[in-house]
Design goal:
CATH architecture of the largest domain: 3-Layer(bba) Sandwich
Largest sheet: 5 strands, parallel
CATH superfamily of the largest domain: FAD/NAD(P)-binding domain
Helix content: 10-25%
Radius of gyration: 22 Å
């Protein structure tokens, strides 16, 4: 291994930028290269379906740092550059075009890609996905002209796009294969809250439906045909059916890949000089004693900082309790904790569910696994402590707004 080789980060998104900054903060003075497939400087993805898509935030607000910050930090940006090969033995990357790049330590923050709709007609013009800044720009333009669109998938992206479209006055039909939105993530009780929210804002929600094909005219989508033969007209279609981790580079190199690039609790992969963080990392979580891959902003913010410290030889154990959030219409929500689908016994509500000002808790026995606060603020820390404590909690007290969470 060439000890004069740079530390290299592959994946120039939020995770990559955070890791690069941390390497400098922690005293690494050597050469540092951040390689990204997109031509944009690193940006955050939540605004693409929230503030920026709604037109509330300026375009510059999505970027992690201004371009001059990378020059000041002596971080070499190689944008618009795909990495096509990884030779672990030689500590060498192959770039598109044939150039090579040696590394001393390597961090993979290659993220994830939107899952493509696997039906005939999915390649028609007017079919949109939302994962990249350019795609958010396309939707902003669409919302200024469209009268009626179809959103396929009632997950977080699908619902946030729906809320932005309705705010722009666009009619939306949402098609979902399950019987409620977010059912796998939240379970029936909390999922009903989001179904009611969107119905109140005029969204045509259609559950338990299967998409058979997209139909078009002159190469442009005009509707969605369902498995029962019915046709849903659409000027455009937005597909939000999840994301898949970008593991091809790691897998071809021989790194262990499961539900993402497998790492230990310090974010080290099966190769001691290669680390992974962010959406692509299937990382061992000490608190849960299992590997977990998280696709949320907070993970991309914090996990790469731990990976960067591990790259410098520090003793690191990343055990932060998962957190994510959403904003839809007048509903703001934060979720703290981690629950597998069906991995809880019951949900306990505290507050006004009908008025959408409440906290929901997912319990296994008497232990709180997760909490979701809806339009109730400054409770994330006590919810996190409830989860981390693993203490038995009285459900009656948990449901009582007059009992402070800190007393539980």
């Amino acid at each position: 291994m060439d000890t004069t080789a740079p530390h290299v980060i592959v994946g120039a998104g939020l995770a990559g930028a955070r890791a690069a900054g941390t390497l400098r903060e922690e005293g690494y003075q050597g050469p540092l290269v951040l390689v990204g497939e997109e031509s944009e400087i690193p940006y955050e993805r939540p605004p693409l379906s929230k503030g920026y898509l709604l037109g509330k935030d300026p375009r510059d607000a999505v970027f992690v740092h201004p371009e001059e910050w990378y020059r000041e930090q002596r971080i070499e940006l190689r944008l618009g550059t795909a990495v096509t090969g990884l030779d672990l033995a030689a500590h060498r990357l192959t770039l598109a075009g044939g150039d090579t790049l040696d590394y001393a330590k390597l961090l993979l923050t290659t993220g994830a890609s939107a899952r493509r709709l696997p039906v005939p007609g999915a390649d028609l013009a007017g079919v949109h996905y939302l994962r990249r800044l350019a795609e958010s720009d396309e939707l902003r333009t669409l919302f200024r002209t469209a009268k009626q669109i179809v959103v396929i998938g009632a997950g977080w992206i699908g619902l946030e796009v729906t809320a932005a479209a309705r705010a722009a006055g666009v009619g939306v039909t949402v098609l979902e294969s399950l019987e409620l939105p977010l059912l796998r993530v939240l379970g029936r009780e909390a999922a009903e809250v989001f179904a009611d929210l969107h119905r109140e804002h005029g969204v045509d929600l259609r559950f338990n439906v299967q998409v058979a094909e997209l139909v078009g005219d002159g190469g442009t989508v005009t509707g969605v045909r369902l498995a029962d033969g019915s046709l849903v007209p659409a000027e455009a279609v937005v597909v939000g059916i999840g994301i898949a981790p970008n593991t091809a580079l790691a897998e071809a190199a021989g790194l262990t890949v499961s539900n993402g690039i497998a790492t230990d609790q310090s974010l080290r992969t099966s190769d001691p000089d290669v680390f992974a963080a962010g959406d692509v990392a299937d990382a061992h979580h000490p608190f849960y004693d299992r590997r977990i891959r998280l696709e949320h902003w907070a993970n991309a913010m914090h996990q790469p900082r731990a990976a960067a410290r591990a790259m410098l030889g520090q003793d690191v154990s990343f055990d932060r309790i998962p957190y994510f959030y959403t904003d839809q219409y007048d509903l703001g929500m934060e979720y703290t904790g981690y629950v597998e689908p069906g991995g809880y016994d019951r949900v306990v509500f505290r507050g006004d569910v009908a008025g959408r000002e409440f906290i929901a808790f997912w319990l296994a026995g008497e232990r709180v696994l997760a909490g979701m606060n809806v339009n109730v603020w400054d409770v994330t820390d006590p919810i996190r402590e409830l989860v981390r404590s693993r203490r038995p909690v009285d459900a009656t007290a948990l449901a009582d707004p007059d009992v402070p969470l800190t007393e539980l």
